[in-house]
């Protein structure tokens, strides 16, 4: 009962806040004047902010920025030992550093290491902090380019990557980070530059309490779709998530920017109704996931252990409780954030399956910053195409014809994640190097591996942490999964935007499929579910379904 | 001016943008936040310290000492180690143990169910109540049978093994489906048997759930009110306290739901024990 009230209040607040933030983002990110300080920054970086880029140029800049990001992070992680604020931690081994560098640059933030014993303050602040914000902004850039492709009426230009990047970071993320950071610190998140301090415990033992700039990292981790913990336990750690109130705020922060971006899309295309329609689709999917997750996590339907315990308490924090953990888990996987405040490995088998399904839907409810919007638009384009075929007209979306050439990119986009996830999972389960890392036996072990690659390829970053990912095999295959899973879809999105932007929109006629109303919502929601189910149902049947139903 | 190729130019721009972001987002922002936090919320920013006794947010191990309230079990290192935060990460259907070899040549691995049953038994003995739970044997392991059937998955039972009870233990049921139940021989392969957890007849569970499960990070500073009340008689006895006074002390260190409806109520164990020692 309290759980539903908690969810309802957080989601209502989200609904209210997404309107002004989405409107602000539309104004701040698209068009308008450059600030003086921004002009100076563009000059220092040697870019011309008023030069429009076609899709190839835009993609080149995006890939160049990400390549440099990976290289910078890799250098920072491997040389950490000789840099200041390392807290005595040495450099990472190369395969771990490679995985971690790609992980944070691709906005995944799966961690094959434990923060408290691996990364010093400089690596967190200047490494994870920078790429957390930057990678979230890269997703926004790709979504902005696609939105312009749909909104503009001809030409080749999709905007300027560097302008989109700088504005996403300095006009959206950084101001929000300050506000949310201060709020979280007031609730008890620590913010200092201390190292480890040993204290004598009351009962006569010792305990080493670890300090750090957690409060400045936390909003970045939650807001940008990043999700990597300052500590291994992430938001289950009391220093990252001290109270039930901070837990509620963290859920809100995870969902806020991606949800607001749907509003931004409505504003930029001059079609707020379409924005609301997309929000309803995302909302229905989220509600389905939350309901399924909550039912799976209740004591009466939980597994053998939950019935022995009297609830799904294993791996949850007392102050947060089971409903607060379930809602957090669904929010972290339906967005692209992937933070955790409990052990997803110890969720009820079907509850863990719901988290998997949330990622397998393509993280579109509401998904990552920007990546959620373009993922959602891809699903909508499939629905538009199917709907158009059903009524026997050339499918159109916002006046742009969606013909074979456009659909090719949509289909290619949709194939990347299933191919990579299922291929890599099959490889891991076939090889001893893959199987030996499983923390659980049988169907649940398979679920752990499936979860790992789903999370890595989709850029989520949440984990069923029983799996030992810090091996050469997993570090390298996960790195491959993240690179392909992030940049290939972005390339298809930009190529599609490049085609769409050249089209002069046609006027809507009586025969145009209306992209609003109940019919269209059902078509789009159903399309999303069917696409995901067709791809993943066999794998889900062997993993979480077998685990939960056979016991 | 030399014209560099487009891809080189873009990488040079990228390098400079990364440098600018490192200086602003990577250094200026966190250091400014540290300054603001230290000035406005000094107590929180420094980790909510309780004098020299640690942090009110970080749970501690009270080492089973009977005059103190005990925290939940913990998977962080050897227990409540902030240098190794972790959950247990065993699945909801982890019910079969790997039994250790009697000669010590192979380590065993307890299933999550057996961990729960063993903790329940231990807490029950400590607090002087029954530690019995559904799906647990009297000797504190998971009550799980391995049933071999004539046709693999179906057919009459041909052999039944109590999978978590190593010989020479007496199985928790003598007969299942008309077949005598055997104890388990460590190292023997029971993979062909169907795994059947047995619920048993337990109706009243005395030990609360949070007392038999680990938390998400292993540093949970709270226990449930029910677990605190279960421990209260023992602590009152050890310290010669009036139970009503102790009850008031528990209430004072209980945090209700945030705003009345968020999360769950919990008792801060460290603060409660500090109050008992007169150090709060």
TrEMBL record, chain A:
Record-linked InterPro entries: KdpA (IPR004623)
UniProt KW keywords: Cell membrane, Ion transport, Membrane, Potassium, Potassium transport, Transmembrane, Transmembrane helix, Transport
Primary role: Part of the high-affinity ATP-driven potassium transport (or Kdp) system, which catalyzes the hydrolysis of ATP coupled with the electrogenic transport of potassium into the cytoplasm. This subunit binds the extracellular potassium ions and delivers the ions to the membrane domain of KdpB through an intramembrane tunnel.
TM spans (from-to): 6-26, 58-77, 122-147, 168-189, 244-262, 274-300, 371-389, 410-431, 472-497, 518-541
Location relative to the cell: Cell membrane
Pfam families linked: KdpA
Main location: membrane
Subunit structure, interactors included: The system is composed of three essential subunits: KdpA, KdpB and KdpC.
Annotated GO CC locations: plasma membrane
Example GO molecular function: P-type potassium transmembrane transporter activity
Similarity annotation: Belongs to the KdpA family.
Topological relation to the membrane, as annotated: Multi-pass membrane protein
Name of protein: Potassium-transporting ATPase potassium-binding subunit
Organism: Acrocarpospora phusangensis
PANTHER family xref list: POTASSIUM-TRANSPORTING ATPASE A CHAIN, POTASSIUM-TRANSPORTING ATPASE POTASSIUM-BINDING SUBUNIT
TrEMBL record, chain B:
Major site of localization recorded for this protein: membrane
Protein topology in the membrane: Single-pass membrane protein
GO molecular function: ATP binding; P-type potassium transmembrane transporter activity
Keywords: ATP-binding, Cell membrane, Ion transport, Membrane, Nucleotide-binding, Potassium, Potassium transport, Transmembrane, Transmembrane helix, Transport
Cellular compartments annotated: Cell membrane
Transmembrane intervals: 12-32
Record's GO cellular component terms: plasma membrane
Entry's family note: Belongs to the KdpC family.
Function: Part of the high-affinity ATP-driven potassium transport (or Kdp) system, which catalyzes the hydrolysis of ATP coupled with the electrogenic transport of potassium into the cytoplasm. This subunit acts as a catalytic chaperone that increases the ATP-binding affinity of the ATP-hydrolyzing subunit KdpB by the formation of a transient KdpB/KdpC/ATP ternary complex.
Subunit structure: The system is composed of three essential subunits: KdpA, KdpB and KdpC.
HAMAP family registered for this protein in UniProt: KdpC
Name of the molecule in the record: Potassium-transporting ATPase KdpC subunit
Gene (name only): kdpC_1
């Amino acid at each position: 009962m309290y759980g539903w009230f908690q969810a309802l209040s957080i989601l209502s607040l989200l609904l209210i806040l997404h309107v002004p933030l989405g409107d602000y983002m539309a104004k701040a990110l698209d068009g308008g004047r450059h600030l003086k300080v921004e002009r100076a920054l563009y000059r220092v970086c040697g870019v011309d902010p008023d030069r429009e880029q076609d899709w190839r140029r835009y993609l080149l800049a995006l890939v160049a920025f990400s390549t440099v990001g990976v290289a910078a992070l890799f250098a920072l992680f491997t040389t950490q030992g000789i840099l200041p604020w390392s807290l005595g931690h040495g450099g990472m081994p190369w395969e771990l550093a490679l995985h971690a560098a790609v992980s944070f640059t691709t906005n995944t933030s799966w961690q094959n290491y434990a923060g408290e014993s691996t990364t010093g303050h400089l690596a967190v602040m200047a490494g994870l902090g920078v790429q957390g914000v930057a990678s979230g902004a890269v997703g926004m850039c790709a979504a902005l380019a696609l939105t312009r492709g749909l909104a503009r009426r001809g030409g080749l230009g999709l905007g300027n990557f560097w302008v989109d990047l700088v504005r996403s970071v300095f006009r959206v993320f950084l101001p929000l980070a300050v506000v949310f950071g201060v709020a979280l610190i007031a609730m008890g998140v620590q913010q200092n530059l201390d190292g480890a301090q040993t204290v004598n415990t009351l009962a006569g033992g010792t305990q080493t309490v670890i300090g750090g700039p957690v409060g400045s990292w936390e909003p970045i981790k939650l807001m940008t779709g990043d999700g990597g913990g300052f500590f291994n336990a992430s938001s289950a750690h009391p220093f990252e998530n001290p109270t039930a109130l901070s837990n509620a705020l963290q859920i809100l922060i995870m969902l806020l920017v991606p949800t607001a971006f749907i509003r931004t899309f409505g504003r930029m295309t001059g079609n707020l109704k379409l924005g609301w329609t997309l929000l309803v689709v995302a909302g229905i999917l989220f509600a389905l996931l939350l309901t399924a997750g909550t039912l799976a996590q209740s004591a009466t339907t939980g597994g053998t252990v939950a019935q022995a315990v009297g609830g799904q308490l294993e791996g949850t924090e007392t102050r947060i409780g089971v409903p607060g953990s379930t809602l957090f888990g669904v929010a972290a996987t339906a967005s692209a954030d992937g933070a955790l405040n409990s052990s997803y490995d110890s969720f009820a088998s079907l509850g863990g399956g719901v988290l998997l399904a949330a990622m397998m839907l393509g993280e579109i409810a509401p998904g990552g910053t920007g990546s959620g919007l373009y993922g959602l638009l891809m699903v909508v384009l499939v629905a538009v195409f199917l709907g158009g075929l059903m009524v026997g007209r050339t499918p159109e979306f916002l006046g742009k014809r969606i013909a074979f050439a456009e659909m090719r990119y949509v289909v290619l986009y949709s194939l990347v994640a299933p191919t990579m996830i299922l291929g890599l999972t099959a490889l891991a389960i076939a090889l001893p190097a893959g199987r030996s890392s499983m923390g659980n036996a049988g169907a649940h072990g398979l679920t752990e591996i499936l979860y790992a690659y789903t999370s890595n390829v989709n850029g989520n970053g949440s984990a069923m942490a029983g799996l030992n990912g810090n091996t050469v095999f997993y570090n390298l295959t996960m790195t491959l999964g993240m690179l392909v899973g992030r940049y290939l879809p972005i390339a298809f999105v930009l190529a599609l935007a490049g085609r769409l932007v050249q089209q002069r929109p046609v006027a809507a006629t009586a025969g145009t499929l209306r992209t609003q109303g109940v019919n269209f919502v059902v078509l789009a929601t159903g399309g999303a579910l069917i696409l995901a189910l067709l791809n993943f149902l066999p794998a889900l049947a062997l993993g979480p379904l077998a685990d939960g139903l056979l016991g | 001016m030399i014209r560099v190729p487009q891809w080189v130019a873009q990488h040079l721009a990228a390098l400079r943008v990364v440098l600018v972001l490192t200086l602003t987002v990577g250094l200026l922002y966190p250091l400014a936040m540290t300054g603001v936090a230290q000035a406005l919320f000094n107590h929180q920013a420094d980790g909510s310290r309780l004098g020299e006794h640690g942090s009110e947010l970080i749970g501690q191990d009270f080492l089973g000492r009977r005059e103190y309230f005990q925290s939940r079990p913990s998977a962080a290192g050897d227990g409540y180690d902030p240098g190794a935060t972790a959950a247990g990460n065993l699945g909801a259907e982890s019910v079969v143990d790997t039994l250790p070899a009697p000669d010590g040549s192979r380590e065993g691995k307890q299933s999550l169910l057996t961990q729960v049953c063993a903790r329940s038994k231990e807490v029950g003995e400590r607090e002087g109540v029954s530690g019995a739970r559904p799906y647990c044997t009297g000797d504190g392991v998971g009550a799980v049978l391995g049933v071999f059937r004539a046709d693999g998955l179906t057919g009459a039972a041909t052999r039944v093994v109590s999978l978590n009870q190593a010989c020479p233990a007496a199985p928790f049921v003598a007969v299942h489906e008309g077949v005598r139940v055997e104890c388990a021989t460590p190292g023997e392969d029971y993979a062909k048997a169907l795994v059947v957890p047995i619920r048993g007849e337990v109706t009243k569970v005395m030990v609360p759930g949070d007392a038999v499960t680990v938390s998400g990070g292993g540093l949970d500073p709270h226990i449930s009110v029910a677990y605190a009340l279960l421990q209260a008689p023992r602590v009152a006895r050890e310290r010669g306290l009036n139970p009503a006074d102790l009850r008031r002390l528990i209430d004072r260190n209980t945090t209700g739901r945030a705003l009345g409806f968020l999360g769950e109520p919990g008792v801060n164990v460290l603060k409660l024990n500090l109050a008992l020692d007169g150090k709060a």
